[in-house]
Design goal:
Elements (H helix, E strand, L loop, with lengths): L5 E2 H5 L7 E2 L8 H32 L8 E5 L4 E15 L2 E4 L6 E6 L6 E2 L4 E5 L2 H35 L6 H35 L1 E2 L4 E6 L6 E2 L7 E5 L3 E8 H5 L6 E6 L6 E8 L9 E8 L10 E13 L1 E2 L5 E3 L2 E7 L5 E5 L1 E6 L2 E6 L6 E3 L13 E5 L3
Amino acid sequence: MNYETKTVGQIDGGEHEDQLVLPDYTAPSHRRRNIIIAVVVVLAIIGAVFAFKGGKKDAAAGPVVEQVPTVSVMVPGRKTVDRTISATGTIAARREMPVGVAGEGGMITRVLVEPGQWVAAGQVLATVDRSVQTETAASLAASVSVARSDETIAQAELDRAKQLVDRGFISKADLQRKAATRDAAAARVKVAQATLGEARARNGRLDIRAPAAGLVLTRGVESGQVVGAGTGVLFRMAADGQMEMRAQLSEADLAGLHAGARATVVPVGTTQGFPGQVWQVSPVIDPQSRQGIARIAVAYDPALRPGGFAAATIVGGATQAPLLPDSALQSDEKGSFVYIIGADNKAARRDIKIGQVSDAGVTILSGLDGTERVVLSAGGFLAPGQKVKPVTKKAS
């Protein structure tokens, strides 16, 4: 900006010394005010232009779309599910046979079997000293021989008397007496034979024998031991080697169980399962434990040791029920529940009762009829009434 500079001499006609005269800044500057106003107007125009462009962009973008989560759902339907029962119990012989002294007893001379050995019916398990009984039997055998000799003599005398009676040498009364003598001798023979047979039978019972074919489980006698009628059990056997598991079951489990149900028995200490079948269900319930026994027959195997502990899984029938994967289940202090998606695509809580759990899934006993759309996963991130986008997956 150019300002005019004059000196005092120029103003006064040159009569005084020259002095610098400055412009007058005290007066208001109209030009500066006009510049400021122009700048404000330009800024307002620029702001209006940007606002107009932003409005156009928002209009082009369209209305705001609400974001909803996508969840996988399935309609489980109803499937045939085996009703399985888990139980524990002990292994035992299905028909255990205690073997003791059948005769008068005596001293054991030999024990012929060991536990774990198979024996046949009537096989000798142990022998008892019979030295005295043998001599008694020999004496009785001699008595039989004497009685037979007496019978022979009496018969011969009777035959001669029959020849003499016709000649009148012997009366008929004598003949009758000789016949009676012969009959008495014959009777004494039978008595002697019966006594000998009894003695031999007693001697035979001195040996400890197997009452039936089977497996020897225990041995409770040794050579030199004196045994008698009150000694007790000397051997225990499993008839035909048949084994069983005596499973302890609750009242509720026993209610739907029947003979013939399939089962798998797993002894403690092994993962091997042995197939079996329930052959008897307890007709009574223990009043203290409120349990009963299901007897599961299993074929013999060395791993099935009587007295051992085992677990069993029993298939107690079948039922129709929805089946869900474990990922669909939720739980809180109120119990188990799932989320279902209604017709309005909103999540709703549904309380359920869980049944058995298997590799196929979890059986739902109540709460679902199988026609609902059930959230498969991410249920923990949903809330009742929340709107979702369901993606239906086919039930396996």
